Amino acid sequence: MTDEQPDVPSPRVRQIVAAARELVEEEGLDALSMRHLADRLGIRAPSIYKHLPDKRALEHALISATFEEQAALFEAALAGSADPLGALATAYRDFARRHPHLYRLMTQRSLDRDRLNPGIEERAAQPMVQALDGDRDLARAVWAFAHGMTILELDNRFPADADLDAAWQRGLDALRP
Amino acid sequence: MTDEQPDVPSPRVRQIVAAARELVEEEGLDALSMRHLADRLGIRAPSIYKHLPDKRALEHALISATFEEQAALFEAALAGSADPLGALATAYRDFARRHPHLYRLMTQRSLDRDRLNPGIEERAAQPMVQALDGDRDLARAVWAFAHGMTILELDNRFPADADLDAAWQRGLDALRP
DNA sequence: GTCTATATCAAGATAGAC
DNA sequence: GTCTATCTTGATATAGAC
Lengths: 177, 177
Prior knowledge:
2 copies of one chain form a homodimer. Chain A has one domain (11-175): Orthogonal Bundle (Tetracycline Repressor, domain 2). The longest helix of chain A is centred in the middle third of the chain and has 24 residues, at 55-78. Chain A has 9 helices and no strands. The radius of gyration of chain A is 18 Å and the shape is globular. Chain A is mainly alpha-helical. The interface between A and B is large, with 36 and 35 residues. Chains A, B: Residues 33-52 bind DNA. Chains A, B: This is HTH tetR-type domain-containing protein.
């Protein structure tokens, strides 16, 4: 009955994760190293290992926290909106534009689900399912569309003169139930 | 009037890029280092720099070649199909499943367009525009959907029991003009 | 909880001989 | 076109003292 799940983080761990978040937001994903993070905290890199077992644990703590934040945003966007899908899409896109490096952290590598807060992925995905009246296949299609638009925009893959607002609208109008 | 564009590759450069492709396909993106590539070629890493100026040049030569291959595949899929969009989507998904690491190489970082073969990005995108009767906004929406489905599948982001064929169908049916 | 010192490894790239 | 030798950098992580 060994239930290996992330503990509730101590205050110090939360400080460390908060510093990691600032670091990623300000300097990008590649800047997230144990040394660099320690600099921000005013300590030496090896000290971090007294609080977190390794770098993956740090990343997953940050990812979990960001899922929590996204889930809250999406739930709020959904609440009492006349156009649930549109509101959700706007919240999704806005989050990624405000936190491009965090967005990449969450989406551009495979996840170790054992190291995430249990159920948090599902909680962040739930509002989309709800906005689509419980249609999970359609919700997955819309998620793929939203992620594709988002990451292609962040990575500068659309032509410079592309009208991305228009592309979002066309996609959402087509996919709306 | 200095027009800095990639030269036509010498035979040796093509050998090197071909070896890089095998390396990436068999061992993944992280395995692509100058040393590792040199091992495959039976030479030492510094020798590669006699043929290519740096690692970015190598990557972009490989990306250009892969765009060429994709463009040909997409054009063939489109030719004489009763369901152009469906045929294109199948070709897109199949390519990514057969060459997941190459697909990542092409999509998961920003491109230096100056280092790509001129016009190759557009050529690979053209079949999608054509399948959508020239509607560029819709073509971008469909591309985003296809990329999102593809990369989320490769990165194992959908639930294990998700019916991805169904999600693809729902998305394509909705977006079909 | 933090430190110093260190192990270990691997990366991109250059100089200069042959 | 390839070689050896080397520079430079930076990463994760551990041991053990304080």
